[in-house]
Write a sequence for this structure.
């Protein structure tokens, strides 16, 4: 299934669950609301920067971000 729209570049190719950011969301609050760690949020959405360094400018209201990615078994 294709991701919802709009999204930014850098979303994990194994993403299977998306959530839309709202006005005023911070990365920390967004992660908490969706019951994921900030580290996973940053790993699955690389546009947010290493350790979330770019969250203040790259977490855009109305855009969808990955909140779960499946792990491919080898």
């Amino acid at each position: 299934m294709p991701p919802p729209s709009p999204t930014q570049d850098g979303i994990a190719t194994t993403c299977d669950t998306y959530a839309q950011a709202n006005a005023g969301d911070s990365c920390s609050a967004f992660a908490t609301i969706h019951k994921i760690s900030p580290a996973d949020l940053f790993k699955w959405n690389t546009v947010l920067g290493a350790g979330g360094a770019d969250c203040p400018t790259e977490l855009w209201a109305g855009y969808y971000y990955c909140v779960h990615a499946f792990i491919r078994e080898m």
Remarks:
- Residues 27-33 form the longest helix (7 residues).
- The mean pLDDT is 94.
- Helices lie at 27-33, 38-44, 55-58.
